[in-house]
Design brief:
This is Long-chain-fatty-acid--CoA ligase FadD13. It catalyses: a long-chain fatty acid + ATP + CoA = a long-chain fatty acyl-CoA + AMP + diphosphate. InterPro entries: AMP-bd_C, AMP-bd_C_sf, AMP-binding_CS, AMP-dep_synth/lig_dom, ANL_N_sf, ATP-dep_AMP-bd_enzyme. One of its GO terms (molecular function) is long-chain fatty acid-CoA ligase activity. The chain is of the alpha/beta class. The protein has two domains: 326 residues, ANL, N-terminal domain (Rossmann fold, 3-Layer(aba) Sandwich); 94 residues, ANL, C-terminal domain (GMP Synthetase, Chain A, domain 3). The protein is 30% helix and 27% strand. The chain contains 17 helices and 27 strands. Helix 1 packs antiparallel against helix 2 and helix 11 packs across helix 12. The radius of gyration is 23 Å and the shape is globular. It binds adenosine monophosphate (AMP).
Length: 501
């Protein structure tokens, strides 16, 4: 085919376009301070890309740091050099970080000085300090032309799953996948422009970093908190200082914003929450505190940020908030994504029937890095199998039950922990609840609830008896100071299960 007709796409084009349109406007901020304009960001990314030539086409470049402004330039530099961005969550244990470095075959690690010091002892891969001397000399390298011939299927991001159900795997995301995510975000959720800002409250190695492309395309500011971590008051202050603020936050972070007791900051416009369950009670508290600024996403590393969504308007009804059924759902299929629920026989489940959620579309990964068995198990029959259980209602709203591994089967009945947790959280004294199955000779499994809060088991029993079927009630309550969570704030069910074995 004539090369002129071959479709070419590199995510660097998003920055190229923003720089052409918005040249001298502020692009990247550290707290209140402007670090780069769009022109200077483009130039830095290209010079860094020029220095990456030594690494070779397709090299995996790991980035391990607390949130910092350089992550934005590194991301675009890696894409411009046709290398692969491998972000590593800075909260992981150094051994877990080393596993990701080894699995990805990364040949260079860019790290903050703190994380770099932890990593250097355990890996032979060269570690360069972000902002250090070598880094600065890279930023002065000769400036290459932007990439012109990237095949959209080229790997752009190796997304290591957060490993709530086992050892993390590298989901392979291409330029095409991330472009589909970008377009869907702009179509469904948010319409930023050059007078808007993306505040990076959550780790940029995960959801917040994935949202860099759509906001860059629209010329919206990238604002990285000066602390590099999520501090609720700092986050709320930044939403007073910068215009038109949006952010992606995990549900646990939204709860921490509410706990500050502060009113909605003047410029806070949109909070996209997701990546883990948002309980209806917590969502109502958040909407009471900040108003209807919330959007929910349901996604996975394998389908970044984009399976279903509950738009801002879906959260409200003519007479107040939307119904509990709607607020407790994960919304409906995202633009460009086909979502289905399959029954045990692999055929589409009927309305209200629970089965495995599957999806397909341009946003779906091409497989797991160097892991054909896991790829074959996940990508079957043209569908990505999410491992999540759920059901559709007649209007196309999907309700997520639980990951299939978390379902409790007691006396032959399926019990979905999320349903029991939702009801437990309606009790005013319950701060957090985590429900798992424990092995039992008579019933196969029984329900055990881990509770954070000052309350008696008998009170909880009475509360549940008024609200859900008797057989779903926990046979045991364990009172704890906090629930075990991974570094993204997700409750570690496998750890709770291990405690009741
Ligand atoms: P990860 O790949 O680490 O982002 O984890 C993805 C998993 O998080 C999904 O498969 C779901 O089990 C869960 N998840 C993501 N979004 C939501 C949501 N909105 N509500 C409940 N669980 C979610």
């Amino acid at each position: 085919m004539d090369p002129a007709w071959v479709f070419i796409m590199n995510l660097f084009a998003l920055l190229d376009q923003a720089a052409a349109r918005h040249g001298d406007r502020g692009a990247v901020y550290h707290g209140e301070r402007q670090v780069h304009s769009w022109s200077s960001l483009r130039e830095r990314a290209l010079r860094l890309a020029g220095s990456f030539r030594e690494l070779g086409y397709g090299a995996r470049v790991a980035v391990a740091s607390e949130n910092c402004p350089e992550i934005v330039e590194l991301m675009f530099a890696i894409w411009a050099a046709e290398c692969v961005f491998v972000p590593i969550n800075y909260k992981l244990h150094p051994r877990e970080m080393e596993q990701i470095v080894a699995d990805s075959g990364a040949t260079r690690i860019f790290a903050s000085s703190k994380i770099g010091a932890q990593l250097e002892a355990g890996t032979a891969v060269p570690v360069e300090t972000i902002g250090g001397e070598r880094y600065q000399s890279r930023c002065a390298a000769e400036m290459p032309d932007p990439p012109r011939f990237t095949d959209p299927g080229t790997l752009a991001w190796l997304f290591y799953t957060s490993g709530t159900t086992g050892r993390s795997k590298g989901a392979m995301l291409s330029h095409r996948n991330l472009m589909a995510m970008t377009v869907s975000h702009l179509a469904d959720f948010d319409a930023p422009d050059q007078n808007c800002s993306l505040i990076h409250g959550a780790p940029m190695s995960h959801g917040s970093g994935l949202y860099v492309p759509p906001y860059v395309l629209r010329g919206a500011r990238q604002v990285v908190p000066a602390s590099g971590v999520f501090e609720p008051t700092e986050f709320l202050d930044l939403c007073e200082q910068h215009p038109g603020c949006s952010a992606f936050l995990a549900p646990t972070m939204v709860a921490r914003l509410v706990q500050t007791g502060r009113a909605k900051p003047r410029n806070l416009q949109t909070i996209v929450y997701g990546g883990g369950p948002m309980y209806v009670e917590s969502l109502k508290k958040a909407m009471a505190a900040f108003g209807p600024i919330f959007v929910q996403l349901y996604g996975q590393g394998e389908v970044p940020m984009t399976i279903t969504g509950l738009r801002r308007a879906d959260h409200v009804a003519a007479d107040g908030w939307a119904s509990d059924a709607v607020l407790g759902s994960v919304g409906y299929a995202r633009s460009g994504v086909d979502v289905a629920v399959l029954g045990p026989d692999g055929a589409p489940a009927g309305i209200g029937e629970i089965g495995e959620i599957v999806c397909r579309g341009d946003v779906v990964m091409s497989g797991y890095w160097h892991n054909p068995d896991a790829t074959d198990a996940t990508l079957q029959g043209g569908w990505l199998h999410t491992g999540d259980m759920g059901s559709f209602d007649a209007n196309g709203f999907l309700t997520l039950r639980d990951r299939s591994k978390d379902v409790v089967i007691s006396g032959g009945s399926n019990i979905y922990p999320r349903e029991v947790e939702e009801v437990l959280l309606e009790h005013p004294a319950v701060v957090e609840a985590g429900v798992v199955g424990a092995p039992d000779e008579e019933w196969g499994e029984v329900v055990v609830a881990f509770i954070v809060g000052e309350v008696a088991a008998a009170d909880l029993d009475a509360h549940l008896l008024e609200r859900i079927a008797r057989f779903k009630r926990p046979k045991r309550y364990e009172f704890v100071d906090e629930l075990p969570k991974n570094s993204y704030g997700k409750v570690l069910k496998r750890e709770l299960r291990a405690r009741v074995q």
